[in-house]
Amino acid sequence: MEFVDNHWTDKKLSEMTSRDWRIFKEDHNITTKGGGIPNPIRSWSESELPEWILNAVKESDYRKPTPVQMQAIPIGLSGRDILGVAETGSGKTAAFVLPMLVHISNLPKMTREIEADGPYAVVLAPARELAGQIHKVIKSFAKFSSIRAVLIVGGQSIEEQAMELRNGCEIIVATPGRLIDCIELRYVVLNQCNYVVLDEADRMIDMGFEQQVVDILIPCPEKH
Predict the structure, then answer these.
(1) Per-residue confidence at 186, pLDDT binned at 50, 70, 90?
(2) Average pLDDT over residues 150-158
(3) Domains along the chain?
(4) Are 123 and 178 contacting, i.e. CB atoms less than 8 angstroms apart?
(5) Burial environment of residue 204 by CB neighbours within 10 A (0 to 12, 13 to 18, 19 or more)
(6) What is the C-alpha to C-alpha distance for residues 176 and 209, in angstroms, rounded to an integer?
């Protein structure tokens, strides 16, 4: 009798074989490089995201994870660095925001003393419009938590932004130039920032922000 192996769509998660995962990635046009990469998530219900995030995902009408979310989220949850390439509109913002929120939720709750060392995470974007969109997405997914995000971009009052920073936050979403201004004016420090996202990193380099990004990630003691 010939053995017939069912397609992955007919299998439970526990029944998935390495061949099934290979076919799954091919079906969703997912390509990965590196060793020991976690398997993608097939659905939100099979992810390891906490209930409060899944509730926010449901309210945001994210019915099914996109390919970049399928693969990037489990990698982010594992604490590994990742370089992701995906088209505009592919859901890459949620792909890095959701693991970031989980990471922050596992850290000590912000107190006045902890806030003095700055945020836990920084997201850099090349343009204030994109930074604003990211900030909005973070707020929507963090709505059932106490995690706070502050938007730091040009074209707005830096004094008002400094006031928000003084009130404390877990996440800063910023353009490189304005964040450097805030650091140099001592409005913020990044002593405990251990989660960094460079959104559209190639565009930031093309726009001439490479040195500013380096100054933020590897600050010179005499400057900052």
Answers:
(1) very high
(2) 95
(3) 18-30+39-91 (no CATH), 107-217 (3.40.50.300)
(4) no
(5) buried
(6) 7
